[in-house]
Amino acid sequence: MYLTRIISVQSFKGGTGKSTITANLAVTLAHLSKRVGVVDLDLEGPGLHVIFGISDGDVRGTINDVLQRSIPVSQAVIDLTSRIRLKDGYLVFVPAGHTLEEILKILDTGFNLFTFKNVLEELGKIYRLDYLLIDSHPGIEKDTLLAMALCDYLVLISRVDQQDLFGSGVMTEVAGQLNKPVVVILNMVPSSVNEKESKKISDRLTELFGLRVLTALPFNSDVLENLSMGVFVLERPKDPLTRRFTEIAMKMLEAIETGPSEEFSTTGRAAGSLA
Ligand SMILES: Nc1ncnc2c1ncn2[C@@H]1O[C@H](COP(=O)(O)OP(=O)(O)OP(=O)(O)O)[C@@H](O)[C@H]1O
Ligand SMILES: [Mg+2]
Fold first, then answer.
1. Phi and psi for 154 in degrees, rounded to 5?
2. Stretch 155-168: mean pLDDT
3. Which residues share a beta bridge with 93?
4. Dist CA 70 CA 97 (whole Å)
5. What is the model's pTM?
6. Ligand 1 pocket, 167 CB below 6 A?
7. Beta bridge partners of 149
8. CB–CB of 154/170 below 8 Å?
9. Domains of the chain, with CATH numbers?
């Protein structure tokens, strides 16, 4: 059977950069010759289709249809390989339904763990994926818990905002119960927070929650000004931030493929106060 590693990208608070990082990491992993799949599981607020530049005409089905068992997963898959002009890698994307009707319907019906598990397994098998990235809705709710339960690795995205950092502790507590390896990416670190302070925050996360921080990405106005219209690493291949994404992807590959790894932690301690 094909070994597909499932990585769930989550955060406690919204707007931390999950979708942006998922899209950029997926493209970077594909550029590193990996076969990559991405599922938009933010069923309440889907957005990855915008970042990937998917138009309505490209969509033959959504993850909502698949989870409601009205179509096979292959019908919802969009092959992005040629769009990103890959030499060796491969990238497929499963969008979420973004009309009001679709969103309300899936909120009403929900979906079950076993259907979701089968869908992920099928995706991995049919497309021989090395990595399957799942973008999520923020916070603790049924879908994020299911994604956490089914993933092999959890990547938590957090700003250095105290609300986010505290929330990362809560997410880690759940991941710890599920025995999932977790790593944190700090994102949108303001320029006023220097490297020493950023390291102090990382150390505090380790001390309090047993969390490891993979990297700290700066706030970058070019990302914001891109208005989520496109994948940054594709649009600015020579930008220092693109290099940072390559470093993150390589660090993750090394941690996952050559483990046991120090990068991910499974200690999930009870969330406490950051103060
Ligand atoms: N490092 C960064 N610097 C500046 N802006 C960023 C950075 N990362 C993400 N952004 C911007 O922040 C906004 C939120 O990002 P994104 O949509 O990826 O977050 P999210 O966690 O997926 O949000 P949601 O919880 O709503 O799904 C977007 O406008 C995005 O372009
Ligand atoms: Mg998002």
1. -115, 125
2. 94
3. 38, 78
4. 13
5. 0.95
6. no
7. none
8. no
9. 5-257 (3.40.50.300)
Which tens digits make up the pLDDT trace of 213-222? 999 999 999 9
Q: Distance between CA atoms of 153 and 245, rounded to whole angstroms? A: 18
Instruction: Report residue 18: phi and psi, to 5°.
Output: -55, -55
Distance 26 CA to ligand 2 centre (A): 14
| The two three-digit tokens of residue 233, written as one number | 């690493």
What is the chain's alpha carbon radius of gyration, rounded to the nearest angstrom?
18
Give CA–CA dist 87/30, Å, rounded.
9
Rounded (to 5) percent helix, strand, coil in the chain: 45, 15, 40
User: Distance between CA atoms of 103 and 243, rounded to whole angstroms?
Assistant: 36
pLDDT value at residue 267: 64
Q: Which atom of ligand 1 has the smallest separation from the CA of 226? A: 31
By three-state DSSP, how is residue 6 classified? strand
